[in-house]
Fold each of these.
Amino acid sequence: MKKCLVVDDSKVIRKVARHILESLDINVTEACDGRDALTQCEASIPDVVLLDWNMPVMSGMEFLQELSRTKMAARPKVIFCTTENGLGHIKAAVEAGADEYVMKPFDRDTLESKLQIVGII
Amino acid sequence: MSDAAPCTTFTGAMRVLAGLLESRTGQILSENRIWRIETALKPILRANGLTDLEALVSRLLSGIERQLSDDVVNALLNNESSFFRDLQTFEMISRELLPHIQATRPDKVLRVWCAGCSTGQEAYSLAIQFQKNAELWRGWRISILATDISTAAIARAQSGIFSQIDVQRGLAITDLLACFEPVGDDWKINEDLRRMVDFRTDNLLEPKVPGGHYDLILCRNVLLYFSLEMRRKVFDRLAQYSRPGGYLMLGAGETVIGQTDDFLSSREFRGSYERRGGLGEVAEHTIRRAR
């Protein structure tokens, strides 16, 4: 079973994402900010990270930059999932190494499609 | 419109509306899609100050408002579509089927027809695929024809403008960045890609598409809305327009079996059907005879 780490400071978003991901037979863990996510990734590398942009403590972009600096056996796929829908943010995320980008609001079809594109399902 | 629970059985008005759709398009509204009638027609009722479906049918039966009946038909058609729908199928087309067709066309002319293209995502997905592999197709004359019976769907397709939801379904973010630009809350496909596709309103039962034979016809997730009799008619038309040895792609769950002898299930390319009379069939026939 594939593992997804959902990183979002919104409990509601984490709950919605978990519901969708579990319906796609994906094992879900949660983190409420980038620092928490990084700690969890160091303990156990997920297959994919669903990553919010704006979060307290450590933002999604800071997490992505830290992740690429951290030595790991395997790098998880990273899908940004954010309300930052401007072209500049999307380009910056891709340049920083994000594999995909979901603009909120999202639905099951969108998430499923992005997970297919990055080869998780 | 009343706030009562949605209908689960056909009313008299619904039968008239389903009959209108079938007579104009060949598509059937089965009982399990009844819920669509009320949902799809709500905006039309509101725009025309009509209270319910019975009032709409009365207006339609007066027979003087062609635009209203066009609007009703457009609203009842299912325009569900997405970019690179069934990703594995698109990968097969891109990596296997198109290179195979390419190897069989010394004249470097490729004709593709998306029959029942809805709002254009499938045709644009092909265009994007050709643009990404431009080096492989250098010197080729590629035409992509895309037709649909819905005037509203074709108008949207021609605009090349898609919502945020649309561009997130099936489209990789790198393709979005490379092929689209933001327009307000929506996204517009690049002009060179938009021009690669010739969109036309057309009826699959009586196609008036440009003559000649097509190397590849995609008619995916369309025939499931037709009766068996209508499907046979459509297959006859598709066969007329398909080059011998050309390929037909149907949607998952759709088949030619029991409906036409003009296409054979391809052994090489999963989910595709080969028009009879091509080199592949001749070779297979020769092998069988040699045995």
Amino acid sequence: MNKYLEPKSPRSPGRRQFLQGAAAMAVLAGLGRLAPAYAWQQTGNLLADKTVSGNTDIFDLTIDHTPMKIGSREANPITINGSVPGPLIRMQEGREVMLRVTNNLSESTSIHWHGILLPENMDGVPGVSFPGIKPGETFVYRYPVKQSGTYWYHSHSGLQEQLGHYGPLIVDPAQPEPFEYDRDYVVMLSDWTYDDPYHVLANLKKAEGYYNYQKRTIGDFFDDAASMGWGPAMDKWKMWGQMRMSSRDIMDVTGSVYTYLINGLPSESNWTALFRRGEKVRLRFINGSAMSFFDVRIPGLKMTVVAADGQNVEPVPVDEFRIGVAETYDVIVEPDDERAYTIFAESMDRSGYVRATLAPREGMTASVPEPRPQPVERGMKSMGMEHGDMQMDMSSNSEMDHSNMSMDGQAGSSGGMDHNQDNMSMEQGSDMQHDMNDAEKASDWVLKDRKITHGPDNHGSGAAMVSPNPMNRMDDPGVGLDDVDHKVLVYNDLRSLKIWPDQREPEREIELHLTGNMERYMWSFDGEKFSEVDGPVQFHHGERLRLILVNDTMMDHPIHLHGMWMELENRHGEYRPRKHTLSLKPGEMLSAQITADAPGDWAFHCHLLYHMKAGMFRVVSVS
Amino acid sequence: MKRLLSNVIPSAIAMVLMLQLSIVSLGAQAEPKPKKPGWPIPVHDSTNYSKLLIDRLEYAWGDEEDTVNWEGQYWYGGDTNRLYIEGEGEDVVSGGEGGEIETLDVLYSRMVAPFWDLQMGAGYQSEYGPGPDKERGFAVFGIQGLAPYWFEIDANLRLSDDGDTSADLEAEYDWLLTQRTILQGRFETAYSANDVPEFGIGKGITNAKFGLRLRYEFRREFAPYIGVSWNKYLGDTADLREAESEDTDHSAVVAGIRMWF
């Protein structure tokens, strides 16, 4: 079975010797060739060398700038042991690891072990868990490995992650896997820019929509008029115009500046996973991007999702899945033809893609699917106002229950919920309670009767809109995927293989709203960026919590909690899937149960790098 | 022009520096305390940025005279507090002489609502040649932001050093013909509460100015354009100008560059 699981260490476990530098790397995955010092090979995964000492696995990692070609252009990425991504770190559940990280950069750095449960001071967030790793210093991370699955690691300093400072991490389980496979590959997705990340951020700060080249044009308005009639086209224009929002604002940083990579290689380098016909191939997808959601498919193959964020789930056969930044999905495919298949990862806004190949031999390619039509356009669901699809039939909203509107006096004036009137302008939106449609009423969604308020001032000037009626979108594949004619993974498909030990009903609820103001590229929770809040979000040690997240923005956000699992409250009751990163669509509300069992301070943030940098970050304190 | 160089610019620079300092210190206060001495802040989210936008730098072929027109703004600051320097003027290059700095404002700007800034500060206006230079200063109170339906609005109330009161409004709208070809409509108008004959201004609505400019964004930062502009003086202002046997409406074909850094 798992042919490539354990690297054959040339060293006996007792010898305390460490290979240094590039020579420490070896290529696994059947080829046995040594990788060039600067990049991943076209096939297989580059494995970090490991030294075994008693019950401890020791890894040495060196952070550096290494000039190399990415695609056909020269670049100067941040590398880990000389490569982008860093080498695959393979740990074993039940053992200890020691990771000695040496900083050869001229600035401080760090490594955060994304999704790994560990002591507070080993989590690798400068300013929260430790002081960071100064230039020239070596920091020794040491912790017991108490879980298994597919994870990753990355810098938590500045914008280093955008420059290549990330890599895959696998923990092999102590018990046999509940599924079978013959081959095992990491497929790490990322976004690369030849530009300085601080320049990218400055562009976003100075010019709203700088990287968006699929804005609505006059022609789009006439197209709408032709397809839906002048009146509804005008209504649609007015609706978005009143909010000063764009239905085409899908991703902040797009293919106009990004080169998308799989295992560090762009499409033309064509990273290849080898198989023999009839084999089961496990592909461990990791989205190590700074800013990019991907839609992933392998035309001609069904993918069976067996794990999400490192945690095993009831197998789900899908044709496609959307992977948020920092999420991981393990899938198993069974290619039964002696031919090449394209692994196709399209950016969510269709502004670019990266492909890799699954093939019986090196050097093969399969046809690359036509990218689906731009532009992708958001509908009313994203405003947190509608149950149906994008449709301009305002009368469908006339049955809203206004009994619960009150917060700030002005709300009472909005009789009739006429979407053309002022209550559409979201900054003064009122707290309206929709009549749930029957399907949702019948559901056992834990938040179905929850009344959402947005503070006395709708989160202030840091929030350009609020969702008056955030909804359950866990059955919704998301923007641009709603009308594809094949099966796309949704959060409601994720059912844990086992019941997690802590089944106490949450004794406390914490509600946080995801907020932003695109015009100034401000991102925050509850309208306040990190520097504006007084202190941490307080968890009481040992308590069982329900964390409720409400997306009051027009963007998708992957929200990551360090140190503790979030058990997503989807339709599977006690078989809640555990995640380290939860992606929320615009207008979405969801909840997760958390056992606050990890004392200390932990980062909690949007995993879109520039959103975090703009202040969409909090510290959670467990005590 | 000499007075501009000798007096106004040095004092403007001094003001800019002071405002920059105060904005920087505001930003510095916003940084949270490190968790432990010597530890960094996990996220620096209060960085100050600056942008110099040359909105119009254009040659205008007018009915009577050709001018070079300019309009720009510079801002420095964070999300909430910013320093703005905004200006607009024209210089006659053929068919006459002289020119005008219509406005040159140095403003403190504070975001008060998601799409809106309140601004206050000092303004300057001058006309030069032919004849003696004329100038005046203002206290300026303004509002700037994005109105529903994506209209860029900049409106100001001005109190001059002679006690005259005036108000001005500028609105811009961008129509995207393609992702890079953009037609911009502009409308400007002003109101004066007093007769100010020195500057050819009568009481009431003084003028209305329309412009249409078609630009192509080679990069977001760099877009040449061509366009037309039309200005009509109204009411008492028109009468004043007629009495001086000046035209009360002007049209021009323009070509220029919009850029920012």
